[in-house]
Design brief:
By secondary structure, the chain is α+β, with helices and mostly antiparallel strands. The chain has 8 helices and 15 strands. It folds into 2 domains: about 10-70 and about 205-240, Pseudouridine synthase (2-Layer Sandwich), CATH 3.30.2350; about 70-200, Pseudouridine synthase (2-Layer Sandwich), CATH 3.30.2350.10.
Length: about 240
């Protein structure tokens, strides 16, 4: 029997605020609108902002396909400081003076990361080891071997640099740890570095310019939400192309 799609079978593009996990956003929408099935297509760290594709109802069936899309980010790397998590949330583990670096030199170093890249997931990540997320082991001071993963970097370029802050844009495959990239860049430059801020600006065909801030989503009435939902069939077309 063919089931008809409802107005809430699809997805809504949310601009995630800083400080919340991707699951927090899912939970807030599920509770507020009393929708049983809600999911997201690609985790953003709590200190990252930007595009989060929230799938609703039978739209959740497309989450794996949408999650596999390439991603685009904009962010800032702070040179001279290395942290335990490779981002601003971690503890400072090393501090070194930043050598004189030009924007051209930064881009020449960034170009070395373009192409196929084997990345080792950071200890402070949601990757599981024997069913336990790595970040839970990290909190106990336990470090375990991690399997490197193949990712692909299409574009990694810096647009501005004022010591010690370097502004960049990155286009990459799913599963790329941007904070690991920031850490590795700092190591190559010899002074260390960490990801100071990050914003996802695109995922597949969807851009953050079409997203709604979470606070505004939670002000919508159920009828207003329905009007904002990308219908299942349109979503399926985007996932397939």
């Amino acid at each position: 029997m063919m089931h008809e799609f409802t107005a809430l079978d699809g997805a809504i593009l949310v601009d995630k605020p800083v400080g919340l996990t991707s699951h927090d956003v899912v939970d807030a929408i599920r509770r507020h609108f009393r929708i049983k099935k809600v999911g997201h297509c690609g985790t953003l760290d709590p200190n990252a902002t930007g595009l989060l594709i929230i799938v609703l109802g039978r739209g959740t069936k497309l989450s794996e396909r949408l999650m596999s899309d390439d991603k685009a980010y904009e962010g800032v790397i702070k040179l001279g400081e290395t942290t335990s998590s490779h981002d601003a949330d971690g503890e400072l583990t090393a501090s070194l003076p930043v050598p004189p670096i030009t924007l051209e030199q930064l881009n020449a170093t960034a170009a070395e990361f373009v192409g196929d890249l084997m990345q080792t997931p950071p200890m402070v990540s949601a990757v599981k080891k024997d069913g336990v997320p790595l970040y839970k082991l990290a909190r106990k001071g336990i470090e375990v071997p991690r399997e490197p993963r193949l990712v692909h970097i299409y574009t990694f370029r810096f647009s501005a640099y004022q010591e010690p802050l370097a502004q960049f844009r990155l286009v990459c495959t799913k599963g790329t740890y941007v904070r690991s990239l920031a850490h590795d860049l700092g190591q190559k430059l010899g002074c260390g570095g960490h990801l100071a801020s990050l914003r996802r600006v695109a995922s597949g065909k969807f851009e953050v310019s079409g997203a709604i801030p979470l606070a505004e989503v939670l002000k919508l009435t159920p009828r207003e939400l329905e009007k904002r939902v990308l219908p299942f069939l349109k979503l399926a077309g985007a996932a397939a192309s």
